[in-house]
Amino acid sequence: MLSERRLQVLRAIVQDYVGTEEPVGSKALTERHNLGVSPATVRNDMAALEDEGFIAQPHTSAGRIPTDKGYRLFVDKLAGVKPMTAPERRAIQNFLEGAVDLDDVVARTVRLLAQLTRQVAVVQYPSLTRSTVRHVELLPMAPARAMLVLITDTGRVEQRMVDCPAPVGEATLADLRARLNSRVAGRRFTDVPSLVEDLPEGFDPEERGTVSTVLSTLLETLVEENEERLMIGGTANLTRFGHDFPLVIRPVLEALEEQVVLLKLLGEAKDPGVTVRIGHENAHEGLNSTSVVSVGYGSGGEAVAKLGVVGPTRMDYPGTMGAVRAVARYVGQILAES
Amino acid sequence: MLSERRLQVLRAIVQDYVGTEEPVGSKALTERHNLGVSPATVRNDMAALEDEGFIAQPHTSAGRIPTDKGYRLFVDKLAGVKPMTAPERRAIQNFLEGAVDLDDVVARTVRLLAQLTRQVAVVQYPSLTRSTVRHVELLPMAPARAMLVLITDTGRVEQRMVDCPAPVGEATLADLRARLNSRVAGRRFTDVPSLVEDLPEGFDPEERGTVSTVLSTLLETLVEENEERLMIGGTANLTRFGHDFPLVIRPVLEALEEQVVLLKLLGEAKDPGVTVRIGHENAHEGLNSTSVVSVGYGSGGEAVAKLGVVGPTRMDYPGTMGAVRAVARYVGQILAES
DNA sequence: ACTGGCACTCGCGTGCGAAGAGTGCCAGGG
DNA sequence: CCCTGGCACTCTTCGCACGCGAGTGCCAGT
Predict the structure, then answer these.
(1) Which residues form the Heat-inducible transcription repressor HrcA C-terminal domain (chains A, B) (predicted)?
(2) Is the CB of A47 under 7 A from strand D?
(3) pTM (2 d.p.)
(4) How many CB atoms lie within 10 A of CB A260?
(5) Nucleotides of strand C within 7 Å of the protein's CB atoms
(6) Average pLDDT rounded to a whole number, residues A292-310
């Protein structure tokens, strides 16, 4: 359908536009890339590309800029993923290795991604769905109050206050804690409900109220924390959006504050590799002039969460994809080690 | 030194400028506020105020705008704190009461502050300095590895991995945990170091290495977590900064990402009440065109952390101060209850 | 199928003039 | 002595016309 040279022209347009942020004309193209043809020929190709909807001109007598569809073709067929250089890899690894706990890993990952890509970075905390329970702790806080602490194998810790229906002794709590752990330690979150179902039966009738309150709080925590948290950074890079950034930045900032939106965004990417959503491909309206590059990462073979960056559609796709992929890989390694 | 009427003129200028975001002239002033004098008189007053450095004109033959010094005078002498209305208070209380844990309290507070003030909200997590240890937990993770979990009375939980010099049995860990808790539970963070100093002596020589590793990790956590965390929100409100916001927004975003900067900023405010730092009063350069309104909050009488908002110097000070104070008060209540 | 040439379209920067807002100052009046 | 009305002056802003330059589309020629 599209001749080889026309594709080359499209690639050149994308590359130039990404570099200069200005509509690119036929003459400039032939000068900067040796396509072996004259501007006039390129003009014809451009007209064809425009007919197909891959490029557009902001106004008559201006150069062309790629459309979302143009970027899509570029990403899918015309450009690969630019791998990181060896020094870059080393830097990534070194930087991530200094982390002291899970929060720190995530925080460092965000910083790193934002710095490497010079865009807004979004990192989802490792998911609990695939996680297993490392330990459950139960602490007396007041006569009829306890604190439930859940520790996962990814190093995440969640706590909840439990208001008991009746005063409860420390011994009972310790007993419950022991039984609870013997049942759920090392098990998957999804298996926990069925494992603790009959637990109240082992207790005195007057204690059962407390026991089931604790259990329901635990189950609640497991579910609730599946609603993932995430961390974002590098928002200052939003100023890189281009000359019209004042108009674009507000909806983007608003979208970034809506964790639900972002989680949905990351969640949609089912691809095993790097996923790119360009402009209007993003469901959320505020992100219609941004592209999202995301990828899953995980401590083992399985992806437990996603990370990615949000930037202008006019971005360096190969480089960004390379950085995102590399960071995901190394974060996975770090998580596997700890 | 400054006559009563001149102060009124300054107040009027601040109010008008905050409302319209445009330099205010003598004629407009006399029309919108009934000062009982003519524009000519106001002009003389303005000239005097300008000589004293309270107002300035962006260019000749434009109206006047307040300087940082002008805002300072306004905040100190000319305006009070505008209290929240009863419905607003109820809304605040209702919104905060839905929180399920500490993270949620902080998250809700940020949202609330950002919404009420229509500015960027910053909330520091409750400090550990004044806190006491509720419980210390020690969990075996691998033969020579354990997880240390610290729970504070403010409901905060911190965890750290501990790499032991030698393999350690579960019994030893349990023993250490029991002794540790009996010594430090309920004590202030600052007292912990001296309380655990001689703890290794009670153990077998070959276990002492492990014990002191655990202890030093604990002490490290206590110190490190004094470097507070904080949460920010409402960054989309940065677009409200004014017509020149494209220039201002970048350094502000950068400053907001530097937690250290923000912590220092909040930390500087020693005032028991609401503190306002205007424009160049902020040490950080990027925040030179912003004002920071902050206040301490706490679960008891003592302030354990700070919260506040960052906005343009051109802000509604009485309203913002009122909102910040009210939110701090209610957050304190919520924390005291939990 | 590519190329060179040419006429045409627009956006953008510049310069100028009119309009408007606001000021500073001065002389007069309570 | 302080306030007021009036007046001349200063600047910014806006609208408009103009010319320049970049870029295009089309066509005839090779």
Answers:
(1) 103-321
(2) yes
(3) 0.84
(4) 9
(5) 2-5, 8-11, 20-26
(6) 85
Closest CA to A63 of A11, A24, A16: A24
How confident is the model at residue A271, as a pLDDT? 79
**Is B157 close to A149, i.e. CB distance below 8 A?**
yes
Task: Using pLDDT thresholds of 50, 70 and 90, give the confidence band for residue B198.
Answer: confident
* pLDDT reported for residue A128: 60
Within chain A, what is the greatest distance between any pair of CA atoms? Answer: 90
Q: Side by side, which strands form the sheet with A275-278?
A: A230-233, A120-124, A305-312, A290-297, A275-278
Distance (Å) from the alpha carbon of A34 to chain B's nearest alpha carbon? 38
> pLDDT at position A282, please?
93
B101 touching A (Cβ < 8 Å) = yes
CB contact under 8 A, A141 and B134: yes
Residue B120, pLDDT score = 97
Give the closest residue to A138 by CA, choosing from A124, A157, A159, A119: A159
Q: Which residue of B has its CA nearest to A155?
A: B159
- Residue A220, pLDDT > 80, answer yes
Q: Which nucleotide is nearest to A43 (CA to C1')?
A: D24
Question: Has residue B65 got a pLDDT over 70?
Answer: yes
| Residue numbers in B 20-49, CB below 7 Å of strand D | 36-38, 40-41, 44
Whether A226 has a pLDDT exceeding 70, the answer reads no
Q: Is the CB of B32 under 7 A from strand C?
A: no
Asked whether B36 and B76 are in contact (CB, 8 A), the reply is no
Backbone angles phi, psi at A281, to 5 degrees: -65, -20
**pLDDT score recorded for residue A144:** 84
**Full DSSP string of A70-109:** HHHHIIIII----PPPHHHHHHHHHHHHT--SHHHHHHHH
A245 pLDDT tier (thresholds 50, 70, 90): confident
Would you say residue B186 has pLDDT above 90?
Answer: no
Q: C-alpha dihedral over A38, A39, A40, A44, to 10 degrees?
A: 110
- The nucleotide lying nearest A38 (C-alpha to C1') is C3
- Where would I find the beta strands (DSSP E) of chain B? 55-56, 65-66, 120-124, 133-142, 145-152, 157-163, 230-233, 275-278, 290-297, 305-312
Q: B151 contacts in A (CB within 8 Å)?
A: 139, 147, 149, 159
- Nucleotide D3's nearest residue (CA vs C1') is B41
Q: Is the pLDDT of residue A111 over 90?
A: yes
In angstroms, rounded to a whole number, what is the distance separating the alpha carbons of residues B40 and B42?
5
Query: Contact, A115 vs A88, CB < 8 A?
Result: no
Bases along strand D below 7 A from a protein CB: 3-6, 9-12, 21-27
Q: What is the residue-wise DSSP string for B144-188?
A: TEEEEEEEETTS-EEEEEEE-SS---HHHHHHHHHHHHHHHTT-B
B10-46 tens-digit pLDDT: 999 999 999 999 999 999 899 888 888 889 999 999 9
